[in-house]
């Protein structure tokens, strides 16, 4: 299964149905996530403006709902706990190095999506992005902005290579962020792009297949459990029932104890002689 976890959503976008159809039929994605990009304070009345079924259901396509929160104020309360229950995926987009460190270190989210098509004012550090990977948070690379813009393409190649070096190739997923159908590329084209940035073929496939599946599974786990903890109930009989069953069993049902070695004088068996004593006894009997 192939995933595209970032297809921007707008209520009045005329290109969105065509983009969805192109992802589904032309290039062969199985799961896409409609992304609502938000900046600033949230409305108290409606956290998720994306309808549950924005398009007719298709047996070969699953549609998820995602929010991408732009971090531009470190003191702002983004109500991430409420967003986790309202969306399938919660992504953060920090705008500077300080906010990137905050997102990697302490903020609760599923993805960290940095706009790599722009010139970065800081360098990616393994110590910073490694905090996110240790917490099970993935980093996202979006490619569609670089298709028709030479400057954005140059920035994306350099920034993506720097991010891959900082993460050592771990925890990277690749999405389109395509606002039009022409901005979507097939999964195998994306894998070839990943090799251009410094990922191997195997890790490039994981970036559009295995790791996005893990993102969706972890996000679902957060919504259906308390802080990611699952209560497992093991159906084992209590110890009292086991003791009661042993008491009610008859003598024939009781397990027989293992025979213990007893003294030969108590059992009446002849004493065992050593090899030297047996030879002496044989010589005495012959004489």
TrEMBL record:
Q: Which UniProt keywords apply?
A: tRNA processing
Where in the cell does this protein reside?
A: Nucleus
Q: What are the protein's GO molecular function terms?
A: RNA binding
Which cellular component, as a GO term, is one annotated location? nucleolar ribonuclease P complex
Extent of Basic residues compositional bias: 273-287
Any one Gene Ontology BP term? tRNA processing
Q: Where are the annotated segments for Disordered?
A: 235-287
Pfam families per record: RNase_P_p30 (PF01876)
Residue ranges under compositional bias (Basic and acidic residues)? 255-265
Q: Which family does it belong to?
A: Belongs to the eukaryotic/archaeal RNase P protein component 3 family.
| Record-given protein name | PHP domain-like protein
Organism (species): Choiromyces venosus 120613-1
């Amino acid at each position: 299964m192939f995933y595209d976890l970032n297809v921007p959503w707008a209520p009045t976008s005329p290109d969105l149905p065509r983009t969805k159809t192109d992802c589904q039929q032309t290039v062969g994605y199985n799961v896409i996530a409609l992304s609502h990009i938000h900046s600033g304070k949230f409305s108290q009345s409606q956290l998720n403006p994306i309808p549950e079924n924005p398009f007719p259901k298709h047996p070969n396509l699953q549609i998820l709902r995602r929010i991408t929160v732009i971090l531009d104020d470190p003191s702002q309360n983004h109500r991430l706990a409420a967003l986790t229950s309202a969306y399938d995926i919660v992504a953060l987009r920090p705008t500077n190095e300080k906010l990137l460190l905050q997102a990697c270190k302490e903020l609760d989210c599923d993805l960290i999506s940095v706009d790599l098509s722009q010139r970065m004012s800081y360098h990616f550090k393994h110590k910073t992005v490694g905090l996110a990977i240790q917490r099970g948070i993935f980093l996202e690379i979006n490619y569609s902005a670089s298709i028709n813009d030479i400057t954005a393409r140059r920035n994306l190649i350099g920034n993506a290579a720097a991010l891959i070096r900082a993460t050592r190739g771990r925890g990277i997923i690749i999405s389109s962020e395509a606002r039009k159908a022409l901005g979507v590329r097939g999964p195998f084209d994306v894998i070839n792009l990943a090799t251009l940035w410094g990922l191997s073929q195997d890790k490039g496939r994981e970036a559009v297949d295995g790791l996005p599946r893990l993102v969706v599974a972890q996000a679902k786990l957060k919504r259906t459990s308390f802080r990611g903890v699952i209560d497992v109930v093991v159906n084992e009989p209590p110890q009292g029932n086991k003791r009661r069953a042993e008491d009610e069993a008859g003598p024939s049902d009781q397990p027989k104890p293992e025979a213990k070695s007893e003294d030969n004088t108590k059992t009446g068996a002849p004493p065992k002689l050593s090899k030297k004593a047996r030879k002496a006894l044989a010589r005495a009997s012959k004489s």
